[in-house]
Amino acid sequence: MTRSVIIVGGGHNGLICAAYLAKAGYEVKLVEARDRVGGGASTVSFAGGYSVSGLAHILHSLNEKVCRDLNLAGAGLKAGPAVDTISLDRQGRHLTLGANTASGDGLSQKDIDAYRSFKNEYRAYAAALDPLMMNKPPRLKDMDGRDKLTLAKIGMKLRFGLGAKSMREFLRVGGINIYDILNEVFDNESLKGAIALDAVLGHHMGPRTPNTVLAYLHRLRGENQGLPTLPPGGMGQVTQAISDAAHGFGATIRTGEKVKRILVSDGKTSGVELSNGEQLHADIVVSNADAKTTFLDLVGTGELDAMFAHRVNQTRCKGTVAKVYLALSELPQFGDLSPEQLGHRLLVAPDMRYLEHAFNFAKYGEFSRAPVLEITVPSIADTSLAPAGHHVMSVSAGYAPYELKEGWEQQRTIFMDKVIALVGEYAPGFEQLVVGKEILTPVDIEREYNLTGGHWHQGEMTIDQSFMMRPVHGSAQYDTPIEGLFLCGATAHPGGNVTGIPGHNAAQRILKTQGESG
Amino acid sequence: MAKHDFKQVLEPTPFHARVDEQSLVKNWTSWNGYQTARVYDTLASEYFAIRSSCSVMDLTPMEKYRITGPDAFKFLSHLVVRDISKLQVGRVTYVLWCNDEGKVLDDGTIFQLAENDYRLCSQHHQLDWLLLSSLGMDVNISKETHEVAALAIQGPTSCSVLTEAGFRGLAQLKPFRVLQTNLHGFEVMISRTGYTGDLGYELWTSPENALELWDAIFAVQNLYNIRPVGLDALEIVRIEAGFIMPGDDFNTAETTVRADHDRSPFELGMDWVVNFNKPYFTGKRALIAEQALPIRRRLVKMSVKGNKPPADSFLYDGKSGKRIGTIKSQVWSPILKANLAMADVEYRNGVAPSEVWAEIYYQKELEWRATWAECRIIDKPFWSHPRRSATPPGQF
Ligand SMILES: Cc1cc2nc3c(=O)[nH]c(=O)nc-3n(C[C@H](O)[C@H](O)[C@H](O)COP(=O)(O)OP(=O)(O)OC[C@H]3O[C@@H](n4cnc5c(N)ncnc54)[C@H](O)[C@@H]3O)c2cc1C
After folding, report:
1. Phi/psi of residue A78, nearest 5 degrees
2. Domains along chain B?
3. Would the CB of A395 count as within 6 Å of ligand 1?
4. What is the pTM of this model?
5. Å between A302 CA and nearest CA of chain B
6. Strands of the sheet with B186-191, listed across from one edge
7. Per-residue pLDDT tens for A224-270?
């Protein structure tokens, strides 16, 4: 008998899980609340005639195995141009960072060499964690054969892949902060600021926060597959291709329908109820929603053990990044950067002290007086995103804490204008080019993307919320305490960004425990 | 009433003035932070007051919580392992509750006072667990230990004493039912509940009426033998009646650090309180899993041969055999003339050991000796009396 599955949410991970299960012969129905698939990785329009990636704008690494297994190229996935990172400087001494290369005025040969060896070393650490990434995280108690193999592989990779010296260094840096590491390795403040941004953006962390090295490794993992890219058509193009692949394997995809609750009786799920009251029944339910939404809203605490519900409720998932979309009448001028260079990933992260100060505000429920920015101008590579001659700019701006002391209602535009003014400090006259603008604070992201706290990773990527404890102890390995209910989103191991790995791993877990074919 | 003075280590209850007056030996202990008498006069006279006339015990230190709101029933049902759907206004039920792993946190009673209005009494402090368990439920939980003065009036003549003291309608009150009544113009709630296995009542009122209530009862002392009793006498009668005491007979889950030192309801012999045919409750999944396996150990009632007190004794499957358990609490029962014990005993393949022996250390004129005593596991309460449930109870 064919086994039936309902997937709650059509973010890229839900779509990938749907595709794998449909391919294996399961009868798959995916229900997405928004009017389009993709979740954080979608393309939206704004300001009448401009298009931009909804939340995620840079594709760091959609997992290669996923692309192959699901033949995403065949389903229409188009690769975009690879981008370097350019860290902006007020005096025009911009730094350009590639995977291994660093260049720019005022950068010493020592720092250039250090950058190469640092990146090689840290990518090796990230790779050493790979067995952990593509497998369910091993349980520490009651391990199965696969868990033991995973742990053994990590041990081997760490010890023999890295060598004794690197292994020792890896253990040293694992728990400390990126601030100390970068100060040990580099002299140039601007270089340190740019690297540190990758360790903190999206997290409730500043460079001096413990855990930032792990967060950096998570971010760096993608680079082992190649440089980040800007997908043509925006992120929605990527998820549309995954959706088409899932559809091709036989999955049914319904958008604009919100799941109100996950049906549970006698500790077992039997399907979902939509907000219009319609019930859909299935053997298995997979949730792409974050852990709090899944357990506290959709399942309900009445079906859970009290301490488990409490642990879910205690998980930290308050977002710190706002999204700003800008419609521009023409390309801005950042010092002597060429239009081609503006097509790369631009940062406002001048030094680590600046980042730490920016974070300080978030700790106390205020937004940064001087924010940190990650900027893309995707219309340079894909002119179809804006009317002829015009451009769109996408900005991820930190720190914009979910819980703002004064509330976001009055502060939203103030922060947006602060971001625009800040860009103007690097590109004089910028304000005059802005013909349309929109901001999504974490509160708006929560509402529009059905994402608790509007958190980048569907939950902080701290060590207590990672690996076998992600999202919480008692629901790791994609399983939940409810029989037949699984998690497949960034809320599960190994966490956020558009990687497809949680969706892939959840599907493997389901196939393994529920039968290889539907 | 006056607030507790922080310089006092132990808090006085609203009955303290009388309790202190009646206490001849001033043998105090802490019960949930309240100054409580272990013994007022002599243990024997207090014990026999419970078993053959009428006893009064200050019950105020028992933890009391008020639970109100639209989800109050849903909350309680999700909290406890028992099916409480038959609970109604004016009724009381015994319950126990577990953590996620199905290990017992505490036991107590739920009183339904009105629609969406309950009182939960427990042995130990539970506010944190109650609040934690209320996530997502529309309930209001507050501790009212200090806002409700409580007395236990227990013993064969207790109904007569309370009637003589001025309460009406008690004779028709069935066990686990509640009567809302008044005395001298103040409200008193009376429940036919107790911890002695005999006829008895618990009286609940506002602290400012405490002394008047106490005095009204002792006013009929000229007609009946009425004695205040302390915790030591209670310990004897509760074991005779076969009631478990969390924290003494087993480690409560909240205070357990070491693996396997906590206990499930099954391991306490409380299977009868667990109901799987009700909506989900905390620990249900774990308990269903546990029930599928042979039971590994059990808290049992045991009578121990001889007259040497088997305090803290190790238990063996034969004289000098393999160690299979320990005695958790024990008393000499004057009425049964026997050593009674609550003991934690290992089961093999889900079966009780066929023989249990206690190794007893005892002193003779300050010299230690050891002896062996055979033990017998007993399923029923050691002692019970038809008086406990007869309605109306006998009048004296
Ligand atoms: C400001 C910001 C910028 C970011 N930038 C980048 C970036 O540049 N690069 C990158 O790789 N990552 C980025 N991220 C992270 C990335 O967006 C997420 O990690 C990723 O989208 C997670 O994918 P997912 O499929 O697990 O979940 P989501 O994308 O969150 O998808 C979950 C889906 O479930 C749906 N859903 C939830 N509840 C229900 C319900 N009850 N009924 C029906 N549907 C429901 C939601 O509507 C949503 O579509 C960014 C995040 C933020 C917040």
Report:
1. -110, 130
2. 16-62+147-240 (3.30.1360.120), 64-143 (3.30.70.1400), 295-381 (2.40.30.110)
3. no
4. 0.94
5. 7
6. B178-183, B186-191, B200-205, B149-154, B54-58, B226-228
7. 888 899 999 999 999 999 999 999 999 999 999 999 999 999 899 99
